[in-house]
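Tokens in:
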């Protein structure tokens, strides 16, 4: 069956181009989420985990959108049309289901004090529910056909999906289920919002998406200079200069460093702490300066500060889902009320928002990972490094057997590693000193 005759050739092209262009941007956003979450430690945090899982569904939906009207043009019984219809039925509603899972986590964290480990234990059930529940009907519809209506999968104006002769199935098997999930999630957010509203005067800035961590009131950045040089070049401290800078110390007596081969180590290590650099930084734009949520006020209601951050991310994800489903549902209602008419404006908006799931989710992901994104940009520009993750077998520290890989200057470096690093610098130094600049960040 051909597309409705009252869609002109220009309108069809507009729908097709819009679907494909938006899908390309969504796929770029999806790959950014998948790659950074899986390979970079700084992006791998609990509040991003479900966005990562949802991205696989977004990818399947965008593949179907890239096919666009080619599925319809290939014929309703063609493998391409059936494959496209399967992808749409399988992945179109997944974002709404993941939003419902996020809302469940917010409820458990807020009102039952679930920890991240307890929430992580639910992931396998969420994966089974979101993708397994979609897979069963999507696969079943491939084999259902009647003499009166024919196969379930067929042309559906924008692409191949549930055929117009089975139009009621679109409501029963997707839109209705999606809106049940939306209402359920909305009810949870109303209850969580009531908690926030009671403390609205103290929690200003909590919903500001540009305020990545509303618990942090300030960060003191201190420059540290580590100098390694021969010990005979060190001027012993006198009574006059001793204590002028309490942070300037000569480290002696470190186990394994004071004795060399046959005598004392001819090198010494000095660490100098520079002045606070916070005051030297330019002030932030006003939108970043909204008052942050105080940890003390938040912990009066919930002892887990991560629950507050998780609630905000889940709510942003929920808002992005509403952007997608309100216009597309309006188009579906219009089609039911006026089955013989086509509203091009509603169809165009649907073609615009339905493939944009990946873009919107990537935006939420970036808003919750602003510091990690800045670190990534600096690393790509050669101004810093990023902590990568590597496969080390099963362990507690990472996702699916992945553990964080930290450099020798990391907080988890052993004493032996640090000692080895100093001796390597000493061996390279010869008779000249080696200066290693470092930066320390301390929450204020």
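Residues out:
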């Amino acid at each position: 069956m051909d597309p409705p005759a009252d869609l002109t050739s220009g309108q069809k092209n507009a729908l097709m181009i819009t679907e494909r262009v938006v899908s390309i941007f969504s796929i770029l956003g999806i790959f950014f989420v998948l790659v950074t979450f899986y390979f970079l430690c700084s992006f791998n945090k609990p509040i991003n985990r479900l966005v990562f899982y949802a991205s696989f569904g977004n990818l399947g939906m965008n593949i179907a959108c890239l096919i666009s009207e080619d599925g319809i043009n290939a014929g309703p019984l063609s493998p391409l049309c059936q494959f496209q219809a399967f992808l749409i039925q399988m992945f179109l509603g997944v974002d709404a289901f993941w939003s419902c899972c996020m809302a469940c986590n917010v409820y458990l964290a807020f009102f039952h004090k679930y920890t991240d480990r307890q929430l992580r234990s639910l992931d396998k059930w969420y994966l089974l529910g979101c993708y397994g529940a979609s897979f069963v009907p999507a696969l079943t519809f491939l084999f259902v056909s009647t003499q009166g209506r024919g196969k379930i999968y067929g042309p559906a104006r924008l692409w191949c999906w549930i055929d117009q002769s089975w139009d009621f199935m679109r409501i029963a098997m997707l839109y209705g289920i999606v809106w049940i999930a939306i209402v359920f999630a909305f009810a949870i957010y109303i209850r969580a919002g009531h908690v926030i509203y009671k403390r609205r005067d103290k929690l200003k800035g909590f919903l500001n998406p540009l305020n990545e961590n509303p618990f942090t009131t300030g960060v003191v950045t201190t420059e540290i200079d580590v100098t390694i040089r021969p010990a005979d070049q060190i001027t012993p401290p006198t009574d006059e200069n001793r204590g002028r800078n309490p942070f300037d110390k000569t480290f002696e007596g470190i186990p394994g460093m004071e004795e060399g081969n046959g005598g004392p180590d001819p090198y010494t290590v000095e660490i100098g702490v520079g002045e606070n650099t916070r005051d030297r930084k330019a002030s932030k734009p006003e939108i970043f300066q909204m008052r942050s949520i105080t940890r003390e006020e938040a912990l009066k209601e919930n002892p887990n500060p991560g629950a507050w951050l998780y609630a905000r991310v889940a709510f942003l994800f929920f808002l992005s889902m509403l952007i997608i489903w309100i216009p597309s549902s309006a188009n579906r209602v219009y089609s039911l009320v006026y089955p013989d008419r086509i509203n091009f404006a509603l169809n165009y908006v649907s073609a615009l928002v339905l493939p944009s799931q990946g873009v919107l989710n990537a935006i939420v992901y970036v808003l919750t990972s602003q510091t990690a994104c800045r670190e990534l940009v600096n690393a790509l520009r050669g101004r810093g490094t990023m902590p990568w993750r590597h496969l080390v077998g099963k362990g507690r520290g990472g996702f699916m057997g992945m553990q964080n890989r930290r450099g020798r200057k990391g907080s988890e470096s052993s004493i032996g590693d640090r000692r080895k690093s100093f001796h390597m610098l000493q061996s390279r130094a010869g008779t000249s000193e080696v200066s290693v600049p470092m930066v320390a960040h301390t929450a204020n």
